[in-house]
Design a protein that fits this description.
about 450 residues, Cytochrome Bc1 Complex, Chain A, domain 1, 7-stranded mixed sheet, 16 helices, about 20% strand, globular, protease, signal
Length: about 450
């Protein structure tokens, strides 16, 4: 099981216009792979992408239910339910799901984010019906007892201890999000607050399952060496029998406009201090694909941190040596509000003030002087090379389709986004840096490193 909560640090779409009039999805021979969309009578959406380069298939089920749909007191339940989905149905015993997938030579897993929960299997094409039958079964017939839940909630709490409470970078990010957002549910960690996990009951997970795990809240994405009509027939056979339900009302929870700098300090055992700076910025909205600013912000991330010699790494790591590493994150499509995030680990002997000053100087220089067209073109070529590698993956194709659909867009919008991206100019990248990377929408989080206690010291204090 995987939790997805950090922002992407590179563009998730490719600049296919750089190489030809065809998209980077193009299969050998210059032909575009066919993509087919179907809607079942029970509301389930099916998207099938043909890619016949290898006899494998990726099968994914995406539920539009993530941590942003949780309520106070039950944070983390989306991720907990992800764990419980492997605990059996009336037909499949606890633990058997993974064994049965492995028995047909497949691999499988699941992941939860703020926006969704997704499950996948990757198998040889003749085994697609086998895994489809398993996944469709647990969409409607999950059945776990309280004892199974009590064991698994302990696993989740230990996961939180290891990945968050014993990880200074994760603690800093968690506090940053909780400080930056006032009303948006993005302020809660995907794994949930520990107190909520400690008080969670099996009934909470069952309620979540009954509320959101329904065909009219799901998208099935299948990519690989398949025949679309044969896939549709199987999906109708296995998923078509699922009964749709009325979904809970989703409240808007619009984030209030920030009116000044917010700051938070975290004290935790660590080897060095860390600094995170996050600005409120716009995202792309369905129906407004021509909005320039989100594309410019995506490109700005690459200007600052898109390659080894990008501006922040070159200046702060190599030249000034004020930080050991630095990263930038932004994602222009999501269900909730967005941040433009810069996070750095300080070099030995350097202060947070020095690091912040260097970051601000680099941003001010970009806002004042802009970037060269040649610099932007080099960045696009670098990103393209990384995207081509990703597009070679059957699983990568399914991931991109799924995340695009869950954010409220269509897989058909990807080409339009690509077309729009090619029109972005250096002046537009400069403009978003000048407009949004300002104090009015800034949240600063600082990790104050504490001396790590040895095991002997901890035991002596008990």
């Amino acid at each position: 099981m995987v939790i997805l909560q950090m922002r992407s640090t590179l563009l998730r779409i490719s600049f296919c216009w750089l190489i030809s009039s065809q998209c980077a999805w193009a299969a050998p021979g210059g032909t575009l792979p066919d993509t087919h969309e179907y809607q079942l009578s029970n509301g389930l959406k099916l998207i099938v992408r043909e890619d016949h380069r290898a006899p494998t298939v990726a099968h994914m089920v995406w539920y539009r239910a993530g941590s942003m749909d949780e309520i106070n007191g039950r944070t983390g339940v989306a991720h907990v339910l992800e764990h419980m989905m492997f605990k059996g149905t009336d037909k499949v015993k606890s633990g058997e799901f993974s064994r049965l997938v492995a028995a047909v030579g497949g691999r499988e897993n699941a992941f939860t984010s703020r926006d969704y929960t997704a499950y996948f299997q990757q198998v040889e094409k003749s085994k697609l019906d086998d895994v489809m039958k398993l996944e469709a079964d647990r969409m409607s017939h999950l059945n776990f007892d309280d004892a199974e839940f009590l064991k698994e909630i302990q696993v989740v709490m230990e996961e939180r201890r290891l990945r968050t409470e014993d990880n200074p970078s994760s603690l800093l990010y968690e506090s940053l999000m909780a400080t930056a957002y006032m009303s948006s549910p993005y302020r809660h960690p995907v794994i949930g607050w520990m107190n909520d996990l400690e008080n969670m009951k099996a009934a909470d997970a069952r309620d979540w399952y009954r509320s959101w795990y329904t065909p009219n809240n799901a998208t099935v994405v299948i990519t690989g060496d398949v025949d679309p009509l044969a896939v549709l027939k199987s999906v109708e056979k296995f998923y078509g029998v699922a009964t749709p339900k009325e979904l809970p009302v989703r409240k808007p929870q619009v984030e209030p406009i920030q009116k000044g700098v917010k700051q938070v300090q975290v004290k935790a055992p660590a080897d060095s201090a860390q600094l995170a700076m996050a600005w409120k910025v716009p995202k792309l909205h369905p129906g407004t694909l021509d909005d320039v600013e989100p594309y410019a912000l995506e490109l700005l991330t690459a200007v600052l941190d898109g390659y080894d010699n990008a501006r922040l790494n070159r200046t702060l790591v190599k030249q000034e040596r004020v930080v050991d590493n630095i990263g930038v994150g932004y994602d222009m499509i999501s269900r909730g509000p967005e941040l433009f995030l810069i996070q750095a680990s300080l070099a030995k002997g350097k202060t947070v003030s020095q690091a912040e000053m260097s970051i601000r100087k680099a941003l001010r220089e970009l806002a004042d002087k802009g970037i060269l067209d040649s610099e932007l073109q080099r960045i696009k070529v670098r990103i393209l090379s990384e995207q081509i590698y990703k597009r070679d993956s059957i699983f990568g194709q399914a991931m991109e389709i799924g995340t695009t659909e869950i954010a409220g867009f269509s897989w058909r919008d990807i080409d339009r986004m690509l077309d729009k991206m090619q029109t972005i100019t250096p002046a537009q990248v400069q403009a978003v840096a000048k407009k949004y990377l300002v104090d009015e929408g800034l949240t600063i989080a600082v990790l104050d490193p504490q001396v790590r206690q040895s095991v002997q010291t901890k035991q002596g204090a008990q």
